[in-house]
Every structure is written in C-alpha cells, then in structure tokens.
Amino acid sequence: METLSADDHTAYHVNAKVFNGNMEKHEIKEYYSKWAHQYEKDLAPGRYNGPTMAAETCAHCFNEDYRENVRVLDVAAGTGAVGEQLIKKGFSDIHALDPSEGMLEVAKSKNVYTKFLNEYLTEEKLPVPDGYYNCVTSSGGMGDGHIPCEALYEIIRIVKSGGCVVIVMREEYIYNVPEYKDRLEPLMDQLEAQGKWTRMERRVVPNYAFKKSGLIFVYKVQ
Ligand SMILES: C[S@@+](CC[C@H](N)C(=O)[O-])C[C@H]1O[C@@H](n2cnc3c(N)ncnc32)[C@H](O)[C@@H]1O
After folding, report:
1. Confidence bin at 157 (pLDDT 50/70/90)
2. Which of 103, 128, 150 to probe ligand 1 with, by most ligand atoms within 8 A of CB?
3. Where does ligand 1 bind, in terms of residues with CB under 6 Å?
4. Phi, psi of 42 (to 5 degrees)
5. Looking at ligand 1, which atom is closest to the CA of residue 146?
6. 117 C-alpha to center of ligand 1: Å?
7. CA-wise closest residue to 215 among 184, 179, 172
8. Whole-angstrom Cα distance, residue 55 to residue 211?
9. Structural domains of the chain in order of their starting residue, each with its CATH number
10. For residue 215, how many other CB atoms are within 10 A of its CB?
11. What is the pLDDT of residues 170-221, one digit of tens each?
12. pLDDT band for position 1 (50/70/90)?
C-alpha cells in the first residue's frame, strides 16, 4: 500500500468497503448503483486492469476471424469495462449480466452489449438455455458477498460444450475470502474430475488491481 498515491488510497478504500464482507447482498447492489457514475474514475485502467486481462484472455481462446460469431456473457459486467475491451478484440455479440441497475445503466450508455440480464449469478437457474454461450467471462465479480462458489454449476450449464470460461479475480481472495478459502479451487477441481470442464490455465498476474496480483482461470467446458 505504501506505493499507492493519495488518490489511489481513496479509491482503494471505496472499493474495499464493498468487498469487506460486512454487507448484505442487497446492500452491495445498492452500493454499486450509487457508485456507478464514479466507478470508472476510481477503478481506471492502471489502478484496475482486470477488464483488459479478461478480454486478452478471451481473445486467446478464439481465433480473431471467428470472434464475431462468439456469443459472450460478461458476468458481473458492472459499467461495461470488460465489454469495451472485448469489442476492441473483435467480439461483437456480448451480453451483460449484473444485479445492479445503476451499473447497468452506465453499461447501456456504451453501446457495446447486445443484451442485458439484470440478475445475480448464484446457484439458481438463470433465464438462459443450456449451452447458450460460447464464452462466459468475469472480471472483478469474485469477492466477499459477490459470486458464490456454487455459481460455477450455473456457468457450466450455460456454456456450450467446447466453450470457454475466463475468470479474473484478485489472487488473495482465494485465500482470505471465507466463501472461497479451501472451497473455490477444490470445487473447480471436483468439477474437472467429474468431466464437466478442463482447466486450460491458472495464471497469477501482477498489477491486477491497486498493484495487487490477480488470478486468471481458463476452463474449457466439456
Ligand atoms: C468490481 S465490479 C466489476 C465490474 C466489471 N466487471 C469491471 O471489471 O469493471 C463487481 C460487480 O459485480 C456485481 N455483482 C455482485 N454480486 C454479483 C453476483 N452474485 N452475480 C453477478 N454480479 C454480481 C456488482 O453489481 C458489480 O457490478
């Protein structure tokens, strides 16, 4: 933290408040809706690099000349930062899922998504047919009070066989968020052992957010 500027510190604390595990689900959603118009100033590229990392990783999964045929769901899409990066990589059929109306309002203004789902991703069934997406990605959607472990079942259900899942998150959350500690990766492994998906990549990356490292998971759904 000593290498962060004063502005970085302010943004860090605004962000930390919603990830500190002290908020109910509905409070988290309301917090984001109130934050929506300042969110991208606080989490600008440089301070938060998850959206670029997610889009670059999705791009590695699909050849450039095929990307416009790829139906992508951006889970926890927020204000649409991932969508903007995906468009730059040649994806064009991108759907956004997020429970916060305020965040989605900003995302809508960007004209990068072809569909919006104002929903939480949990273990509950989404209004999405089985195998509907070629790719599901999320950046910044994993954290205390955010996407629960059991949501992996639903992600796998809505991705086509051969499709790709790209999850980008803060590395430390896997060790210090009670929901994920000793649960998230064992569940990922268990789903692989059950033949539901195959791990293509698990990569620790520097400078994901606030100079902290990130973790990128890439899975191919079977
Ligand atoms: C840190 S923001 C990330 C937004 C965007 N992906 C980005 O990289 O800028 C986290 C987002 O997760 C959403 N969220 C929280 N819980 C969620 C859940 N269970 N399912 C889907 N989205 C959720 C919030 O509404 C918020 O927009």
Report:
1. very high
2. 103
3. 28-29, 32, 50-51, 75-78, 81-82, 98-100, 103, 120-122, 139-141, 146-147
4. -70, -40
5. 16
6. 12
7. 172
8. 19
9. 6-221 (3.40.50.150)
10. 20
11. 999 999 999 999 999 999 999 999 999 999 999 999 999 999 999 999 999 9
12. low
